[in-house]
């Protein structure tokens, strides 16, 4: 089994500022044209709007958030600029089945902002130093989860009227929360840390379901499928766990439920995202993206090479084929026919398209 994904388009980084002087008449209140990012892209999300249209959102080290039309992909539609913000390290788009109505960003200086999908800032919350890094929005309720210093997990309101109001806090294992992820059904909240541990919480009660060492180095990224939980780490490995076994565990323990460990990257694995129950994409500091078949874990199905530098973020187009996976090949198997974006150190957005 192989997966053929080709580079369909590259949205380049913003051009370097021109040193050519402009005359006063040529600079008369012109509206600047939208362009790409000017520094590393650390976050990317592909979502569906109410009505069914797609939207891509990217953010990163240049302190901006950009929205893109996946059908054109040439230049961003809008650029959102949080006031007095440092780089954007956290990004979450409303995962409501009815379509995305808002997005939330988090910056290095621990400022959370809620934006509507037209790019208007609706609310803002300043937290203490190192209180936010990764972000996740609950798929069924207006809850926002984040974690950072001391691996403290904060669950807050994402509603406009009381945005950032703290609802509860939990303690994850580790010194710093590096990744926060809700399962698609909203049942679990997973928090990964710099010590390579994962803490799995019951999202409705906040109680600890399981905590375990997933890696021997910091975990950079996590992803859920309907039955699996996937982690990516600086140890150059991707580990895969049976979610049923994890949810049946209690307290501390070994790597209960681990069903696979995937290797092949030559650098840190800094991003990972499952398209569905079968196809997984991983991005690395080695500048490559690898595609994996979770139903037959082993060697990578294929390696995509184009990026210059770390591939910090990946996001699949929402899978419209449903949960059923049939046959052994083609889009019906969940391998072909997908669309993927990647962003990284070179500030370009790459659009990948699968055959099938």
Can you characterise this structure?
The structure is a single chain. By secondary structure, the chain is mainly β. About 0% of the residues lie in helices and about 45% in strands. It contains one helix and 28 strands. The protein has one helix at about 245-250; strands spanning about 5-10, 40-50, 55-60, 65-70, 80, 90-95, 100-105, 110-115, 120-125, 135, 145, 150-155, 165-170, 175-180, 190-195, 195-200, 210-215, 220-225, 230-235, 235-240, 260-265, 270-275, 280-285, 290-295, 300-305, 315, 340-345, 350-355. The chain has a four-stranded antiparallel β-sheet, with no helix packed on it. Strands 2-3-4-5 form a four-stranded antiparallel β-sheet, with no helix packed on it.
What is the structure about, briefly put?
The protein has 356 residues and is an all-beta fold. 2% of the residues lie in helices and 45% in strands. The chain has one helix at 243-248, and strands spanning 5-11, 41-48, 54-60, 65-68, 78-80, 88-93, 102-107, 111-116, 121-126, 134-137, 143-147, 152-157, 166-171, 177-182, 188-193, 197-202, 208-213, 219-224, 228-233, 237-242, 258-263, 269-274, 279-284, 288-293, 302-305, 313-316, 339-343, 349-354.
């Amino acid at each position: 089994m192989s997966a053929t994904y080709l580079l369909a388009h590259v949205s380049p980084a913003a051009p370097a500022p021109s040193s050519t002087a402009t005359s006063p008449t040529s600079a008369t209140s012109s509206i600047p044209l939208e362009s790409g990012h000017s520094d590393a892209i650390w976050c990317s999300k592909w979502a569906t709007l109410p009505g069914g249209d797609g939207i891509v959102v990217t953010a990163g080290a240049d302190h901006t958030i950009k929205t893109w039309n996946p059908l054109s992909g040439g230049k961003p539609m809008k650029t959102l600029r949080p006031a007095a913000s440092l780089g954007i390290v956290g990004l979450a788009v409303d995962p409501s089945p009815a379509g995305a109505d808002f997005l939330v960003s988090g910056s290095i200086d621990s400022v959370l902002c809620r934006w509507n999908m037209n790019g208007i800032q609706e609310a803002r919350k300043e937290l203490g130093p190192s209180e936010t890094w990764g972000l996740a929005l609950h798929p069924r309720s207006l809850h926002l989860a984040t974690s950072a210093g001391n691996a403290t997990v904060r669950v807050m309101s994402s509603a406009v009227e009381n945005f950032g109001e703290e609802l509860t806090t939990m303690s994850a294992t580790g010194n710093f929360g590096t990744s926060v992820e809700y399962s698609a059904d909203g049942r679990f909240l997973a928090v990964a840390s710099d010590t390579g541990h994962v803490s799995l919480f019951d999202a409705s009660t906040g109680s600890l379901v399981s905590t375990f060492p997933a890696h021997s180095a910091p975990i950079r990224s996590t992803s859920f499928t309907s039955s699996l939980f996937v982690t990516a780490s600086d140890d150059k490995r991707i580990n895969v766990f049976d979610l049923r076994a994890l949810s049946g565990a209690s307290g501390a323990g070994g790597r209960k439920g681990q069903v696979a460990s995937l290797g092949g990257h030559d650098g840190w694995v800094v991003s990972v995202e499952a398209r569905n129950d079968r196809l997984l994409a991983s991005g690395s500091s080695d500048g490559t993206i690898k595609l994996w078949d979770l139903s037959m874990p082993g060697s990578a199905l294929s390696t995509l090479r184009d990026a210059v530098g770390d591939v910090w973020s990946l996001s699949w187009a929402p899978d419209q084929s449903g949960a059923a996976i049939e046959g052994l090949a083609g889009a019906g198997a969940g391998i072909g026919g997908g669309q993927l974006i990647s962003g990284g150190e070179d500030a370009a957005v790459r659009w990948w398209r699968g055959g099938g």
